[in-house]
Amino acid sequence: MAPPESTLPYPLLHTDKKFVVLSDWDGTITTRDSNDYMTDNLGYGAEKRRAGNLTVLAGKNNFRDAFREMMESIVANGHSFEECKEVLRKNITIDSGFKDFHRWLKANDIPFIVVSSGMVPTIRAVLENVLGKDEANKIDIISNDVEIDADGKWRIKYRHPSSGFGHDKSQAILPYRSLPNPPTLFFFGDGVSDMSAARYADVLFVKTKEGGDNDLHAYCVKEKIPHVVFTNFAEALPIVQSIVRGEKTVKDVIGADVTPENLTCARQ
């Protein structure tokens, strides 16, 4: 099957690196999902939003359409995009271990890429608030974008509008698989939007939260996808370090008999 056409450019591949780290943004790097927060507080509310997520998990709807409905409910209530960004700056915080995790990657020349089903401007707004504008602008973000009309109404611009995911995150990972010497790929995620990428990383970290939805974990258990559960990037860092330093193998970490052959089968 041909990959979905992208309406937005991709950053250059890190073709010379031995390790690459990719991470979901909402609910993984952030302590709460920023789009859920906007929907719950500015849109049609938590109950309807959660019901929509469950229809996606059940295969009755796709993420693209469910997420569009969430964002449309915010616009319908009269909230501008600038207002949304300001609300997120004030209310969204990041995982307490993320700064040290990112600092270690940077010190060891390991690329870090945010792969999100949200929108670049809202992600940048929170990142700049946390890391500062200069540092935030150095981080590659592969996400959707936003279109804003003259009257202030706005809508999400999907990276892959023909895909049921809106942004098929696997397309951020698969090009690395085609390299002559592909790097070891770490992917971090937590929710419904990460399902498209879950099968394609060498080491999949799945974030769980007490009392949270934990949709990606449920999906991986159901589909028997090997993964590492974590609750904080401070827990994940030693595991990544052990692989980078050669102290452990991918097989050691994910606890499965991983070979190129069965990795390929798992990804089909």
TrEMBL record:
<protein>
    <recommendedName>
        <fullName>HAD-like protein</fullName>
    </recommendedName>
</protein>
<dbReference type="InterPro" id="IPR006384">
    <property type="entry name" value="HAD_hydro_PyrdxlP_Pase-like"/>
</dbReference>
<dbReference type="InterPro" id="IPR036412">
    <property type="entry name" value="HAD-like_sf"/>
</dbReference>
<dbReference type="Pfam" id="PF12710">
    <property type="entry name" value="HAD"/>
</dbReference>
<keyword id="KW-0378">Hydrolase</keyword>
<dbReference type="GO" id="GO:0016791">
    <property type="term" value="F:phosphatase activity"/>
</dbReference>
<dbReference type="InterPro" id="IPR023214">
    <property type="entry name" value="HAD_sf"/>
</dbReference>
<dbReference type="InterPro" id="IPR050849">
    <property type="entry name" value="HAD-like_hydrolase_phosphatase"/>
</dbReference>
